Amino acid sequence: MSRKIIIAIDGYSSTGKSTFAKLISDRTGYLHLDSGAVYRAVTLFALRGGWIDAENNIDQKALRSAMRQLRVSLRPDTYINEENVEGLIRQMDVSNAVSPVSAIGFVREYVDKLLRRYGKKGGIVMDGRDIGTNVFPDAQLKIFMTADAKVRAQRRYDEMIEGGKQVTFEEVMQNILDRDEKDTHREISPLRQAEDAIVLDNTDMTLEEEMVWFKDLMHTRFGIDI
Ligand code: DC
Questions:
Q1: pTM attached to this predicted model
Q2: Residue with the nearest Cα to atom 3 of ligand 1?
C-alpha cells in the first residue's frame, strides 16, 4: 500500500469497532488507535482519585487540575504514565462511569489533542464516536458501524464471560442502552453519522464478511488493494 489515508470508524457501543479496526490494521499495516481507551483511561484516573461518587457526580474542578499531571499513551496497549491499564479500563466500574466523563468539555479537549497528535502522518485507523465528525473531519474514509442492540449485548457479554468477568446479560444490555442514549444526546461532539460516512450494519455479518466488504471498498474507492 502506497497511499496513507486516515480511516475513521465511528458507531454505537459494542458494534465491534475495535475488533474490525484491529483487523484492518493487521491487513494494511496502519496503526490502530482506540479513542475510547483514552476516555476509559481518564475515567479510571478519576475513579482512583475519588473524583467520581457513587451517583456518577464528578468533581470537575479537582479532576481538571489533576489532569495536568496525567499522561495517557497508546502503545498500542493503554498506559497511564508507565502503567499498563489495558485490562483495568475494560472493567464494569469504568464502563459505568465513562459516558459522563466523556461528556466534559475539558476532557474532550485533552483527548482530541492527544488523538490528533497520533494522526499527523496519516496511515492510521481510529475508532470511536466522533472521529469522522470532530477529530478528523477530513478523513478520507469514514465508516459508521451499527447493529441490533441485543446482538451487540450478546457479543459483549460472551467476550466478558470468556475473559473471566462476573456480569449478567441484563447488566451488559443496560450498560449498552445507557451509553447509546448518553453518547447520542450529549452536548459536545455527540455520536452521529457524518454525512460522508458509509454505514456498516453488521447484525448478520461475520468478521470475515466485514473484511470482504472493506477490501472491496478500498479497491473501488481508492484503488488500494489489500
Ligand atoms: O469505544 P468504547 O466503548 O471503549 O468507548 C467508551 C466511551 O467513551 C463511550 O461510551 C463514549 C466515549 N467515547 C467518546 O465519547 N468519543 C470517542 N471518540 C470514543 C469514545
A1: 0.92
A2: 13
